[in-house]
Design goal:
Length: 168
């Protein structure tokens, strides 16, 4: 008797690629990468922000992916490791600290009765980023939010190899 069952398929995600059903998702993704790649904010800073976002939402896929981006860009292991505790780490510039504080404020619940992004935080970020860079940083936070939904719902397997294809 011969076995007629098909071999098991290895899936990298618990859901099929959304791009198969909504092909416009590729255009959205590409547009977001173009928008954040305008060089008004260093790509390393954007990857630090994206890494912190992945840590905040507890998503291994995004954490490994953005760690890979940072390694490929020549980032030190100390800085990569310290992103989770950036507030007391000596490795970050004031501009990077402002960007990390902004992503945290955006993704974490605000204390009762307070807004997420206070006027003080906005002013601190604006000290380090001009209007174009601030808009780019805001879009970068929106970009990672777009990918957070895909990552936490689809639950793709962690891969670092995408960094080789996506880093500019």
């Amino acid at each position: 008797m011969t076995d007629t069952t098909a071999p098991a398929t290895t899936h990298i995600s618990r859901m099929p690629d959304p791009g198969e059903f909504v092909p416009e998702v590729s255009d959205i993704s590409a547009a977001l990468f173009r928008a954040t790649g305008n060089r008004s904010v260093p790509r390393k800073t954007i990857s630090l922000v994206h890494l912190r976002a992945g840590q905040i939402v507890g998503n291994t896929y995004l954490t490994i992916l953005n760690t890979s981006f940072l390694r490929k860009a020549g980032e030190t292991e100390e800085r990569i490791t310290a992103v989770s505790s950036w507030q007391d780490a000596p490795y970050f510039t004031e501009a990077e600290r402002a960007a990390l504080a902004l992503v945290e404020a955006t993704l974490q619940p605000a204390p009762h009765g307070r807004e997420r992004v206070s006027d003080e935080l906005y002013a601190e970020v604006a000290k380090h980023y001009d209007e174009k860079a601030l808009a780019t940083l805001t879009i970068a936070i929106g970009q990672i939010n777009f990918f957070i939904a895909l990552a936490v719902i689809g639950k793709p397997q962690p891969v670092g190899s995408l960094a080789d294809e996506q880093w500019d």
